[in-house]
Structure of DUF1573 domain-containing protein:
Amino acid sequence: MKKFIVSLFATLLVTTAVWAQAQGGGAANAVDAKLKFKKETVDFGKTKYNKPVTVVFEFTNISKEPVLIESAKPSCGCTVPKWTVEPILPGKTGTISATYSANQVGKPMKTVYVKVKGVDQEKELFLTGTVEN
């Protein structure tokens, strides 16, 4: 009887995992099912201290419906994002730009959190590079 209960529990666990993957693999895949980014990490190369630099993330709507970006939030106040505000039609492209103030010497890794209408989880985009004196 003990083996039967353990076997039943294991079967239930595996079935639940397979079902969850069949439902889309989680919220992170929901954005990826709508938007295809050319790059999710953009390296701005080298810049001088206090010389702002802007990177652009290009994407295509790969879904069959218009997609609206509700917001793009930076991981800190030193990065300012801008994005395509009108709905992006199927097959069309849009952009999210992020301007980093370069106010710290080193190799920053900044994140922009993108919120797509109808999707709970945000998409993370990264900008990196080198800030020199």
In short: Strands lie at 35-37, 41-48, 53-61, 69-74, 79-83, 93-100, 109-116, 123-132. Residues 47 and 131 are 5 Å apart (CA to CA). The chain is about 20% helix and 45% strand.
